[in-house]
TrEMBL record:
Record-given protein name: Elongation factor 2
Binding site for GTP: 28-35, 94-98, 148-151
Family: Belongs to the TRAFAC class translation factor GTPase superfamily. Classic translation factor GTPase family. EF-G/EF-2 subfamily.
Subcellular location: Cytoplasm
Organism: Methanothrix harundinacea (strain 6Ac)
Keywords: Coiled coil, Cytoplasm, Elongation factor, GTP-binding, Nucleotide-binding, Protein biosynthesis
Recorded name of the encoding gene: fusA
The keyword NAD is assigned to this record: no
Length: 395
């Protein structure tokens, strides 16, 4: 059996356990290292080799993207991560980091419950960092922080140990100030990032290592050790002792909510229909036996299967042959295939239960932002709005 097929089997075995799922997006200002970080996570899941992480730019599969060197199309991948002896399913969405593609970031935010905000240790928070944070808070998506390019502090800025920690502390303070400024209520309710609790990780995606305060005991690598290894240029040992994917995935599992928890908080924010209805209760409870409620966040074209609608399933179980209604369209569409994404590849799976990111073919009338339901009269989700500049509705 192929490696990917094996991974796909492990993924499907976790799809119907919503408490073991994390739907996440990686968001960043351009060039802060989102793609390199995504590669590390893919390598950790066995999807690409560790040596290639940071070099292969796996998520940027479009030729256009390769040519331009920036990520344009949001791509998805599902992977399995073991934390404290239990397997978890992480559905990761890659999001564009360029200012022109704000609309795509917005769509991705609708599909996820948590965001890993990547910030360059030297540059700190930049305008796009602010935009993606604001969008996350608006969509009720929890943030954790990854401070990337820590190697630059030493190799380029030549800071000493104390200065390194001071700068990192200041960067975290700035992020928390932004969160507080955007939403004081959420800030007070624990949405701030906290290095000592573990909702911040520090590392270097290019050199495949990362640390977080709670992990310092088990790895034996703290800020002092990081400083010493960087000083002598021994990144290999750091990558072995504290691989990036472990620090980041552990942080994701610990601090970002499962769909079971998240949908309770989020459904009321993104759907304004009848709160006593069966549909609302089913979405709130992430019920795989309820009516279908699927929000389309991306449409791509597969040379063989045609249009693929990717999105978040909030309620019900998607299966081939289902007749479903697209918001604003009178006639129904029949589901042809249901699948998950593993980088550029779509892997067909028989059923997709509530709480997952699904790739569906056959929904010919769907567009980005469509609500897909089993009930023709179902209230659609709130329009996806991009909030950085003048608020526009993404059609
Ligand atoms: P994105 O635009 O956020 O996806 O950023 P990329 O992942 O494409 O990274 C932008 C540039 O920063 C590339 O040249 C990377 O090799 C480099 N880079 C990424 N992570 C690190 C890091 O930890 N340290 C250093 N020094 N460079 C990095």
């Amino acid at each position: 059996m192929g490696k990917r097929k094996k991974i796909a089997e492990r993924v499907t075995s976790l799809m119907d356990k919503p408490e073991m799922i994390r739907n996440i997006g990686i968001v960043a200002h351009i060039d802060h290292g989102k793609t390199t970080l995504s590669d590390n996570l893919l390598a950790g899941s066995g999807m690409i080799s560790m040596e290639l992480a940071g070099k292969q730019l796996f998520m940027d599969f479009d030729e256009l993207e390769q040519a331009r060197g920036i990520t344009i199309d949001a791509a998805n991948v599902s992977m399995v991560h073991e934390y404290q002896g239990k397997e978890y399913l992480i559905n990761m969405i890659d999001t564009p980091g360029h200012v022109d593609f704000g609309g795509d970031v917005t769509r991705a935010m609708r599909a996820v419950d948590g965001a890993v905000v990547v910030v360059d240790a030297v540059e700190g928070a930049m305008p796009q960092t602010e935009t993606v944070l604001r969008q996350a808070l608006k969509e009720n998506v929890h943030p954790v922080l990854f401070v990337n390019k820590v190697d630059r502090l030493l190799n380029e800025l030549k800071v000493d140990k104390q200065e390194m920690q001071l700068r990192l502390g200041k960067l975290i303070d700035n992020i928390n100030k932004l969160i507080r400024g955007m939403n004081e209520e959420k800030y007070k309710a624990g949405w701030r990032v906290d290095a000592s609790a573990g909702s911040v990780a520090f590392g270097s995606a290019l050199y495949n290592w990362a640390i977080s305060v709670p992990q310092m005991k088990s790895t034996g690598i703290g800020f002092g050790e990081v400083y010493d290894y960087c000083q002598v240029g021994d990144m290999k040992t750091l990558a072995q002792k504290c691989p990036l994917y472990l620090a980041v995935n552990d942080m994701v599992i610990r601090f970002l909510p499962s769909p079971l928890k998240a949908q309770k908080e989020r459904v009321g924010v993104i759907w304004h229909g009848d709160k006593t209805s069966k549909l609302y209760k089913s979405m709130e409870g992430c019920d795989p036996h309820g009516p279908i409620a699927f929000m389309v966040t991306d449409i791509s074209v597969d040379p063989h299967a045609g249009e693929v609608a990717t999105g978040r399933l909030f309620s019900g179980t998607l299966e081939r042959g289902m007749e479903l209604f697209i918001s604003g369209v009178a006639k129904s569409n029949r589901v042809q295939q249901t699948g998950i994404f593993m980088g550029a590849d779509r892997v067909e799976v028989e059923k997709i239960p509530a709480g997952n990111i699904a790739a569906v073919t056959g929904l010919r009338d769907a567009y980005v932002g469509s609500t897909v339901s089993s009930n023709k009269e179902a209230t659609p989700f709130e329009d996806i709005k991009h909030v950085s500049e003048p608020v526009v509705t993404v059609a």
